[in-house]
Structure formats: structure tokens, C-alpha cells
Amino acid sequence: MSDKANETVWVMGDADINELRGSICTLETRTELERSAISYQKCADLLGIDLNSFGLKLDEQAPMTVVEAKRIRDAFCPDCTLDYLLESDSPAIPTI
Questions:
Q1: pLDDT of residue 8
Q2: Of 46-50, 71-75, 85-89, which range is least confident?
Q3: Average pLDDT along the chain
Q4: 87 burial level (CB within 10 Å; 0-12, 13-18, 19+)
Q5: Reduced to 3 DSSP states, what percent helix, strand and coil does the chain have, rounded to the nearest 5?
Q6: Are 86 and 22 within 8 A, CB to CB?
Q7: Which residues contact 89 (CB under 8 A, 6 or more apart)?
Q8: Which residues, at least 6 apart from 17, have a Cβ–Cβ distance to it below 8 Å?
């Protein structure tokens, strides 16, 4: 039997992509980490990713999951809400 039979394929529509775009790291996350004197390397280590990957999340080039945002909040920014940390200053992609 082929390994492909057990693979899961995820198909994302425009609405899913827009929802994912809303779950992206932002300027507020960067500001809070700097205010708390938390290095980006500490965050990358917490998430189990390399520094470059974490940088992509901060630059809104890669999505940050809710689980990742919660881990950062719980470890470094416990007084911040997830809404605040994930608020984006980038324009939203319009839905069709």
C-alpha cells in the first residue's frame, strides 16, 4: 500500500487564508518583547524554531499560530491579551 494513502491534504480557500492572515505576529508583539527586554532568540527557543523563522513571523512573512502566541504570552507577556499581541498593522486582504 502506498504511503500517499495515509497523507492528509489541506486545501485552503480565500476565507481560510484571510483568517490565517489575522493570526500573524505584529508590531505589538515586537514592542512588548522589546519592552520586556526579551530577546528574539529566547522566543525562537521557546517555540522550537530558529531565529530566522521567528524573524519571519515578526515581519508578517510567516503565520504565527494561536498556540505559539499563547506560549509567548504566557512566558513573556502575561499581562497582554492575545488580541493585542496579534493585532496587525498591515492591511487586511479583502475577501471576494
A1: 38
A2: 85-89
A3: 73
A4: middle
A5: 55, 0, 45
A6: yes
A7: 26, 27
A8: 93
- pTM of the model as a whole: 0.63
**89 phi/psi in degrees, rounded to 5:** -95, 0
For position 12, what pLDDT does the model report? 38
| Distance, CA of 64 to CA of 60 (rounded, Å) | 8
- Quick one: pLDDT at residue 96? 53
Q: What is the pLDDT of residue 59?
A: 82
CA Rg, the chain, in Å? 15
- Cell numbers standing for residue 80: 497582554
Angstrom distances, CA of residue 43 to CA of 1, 24, 35, 69, 73:
41, 15, 14, 10, 10
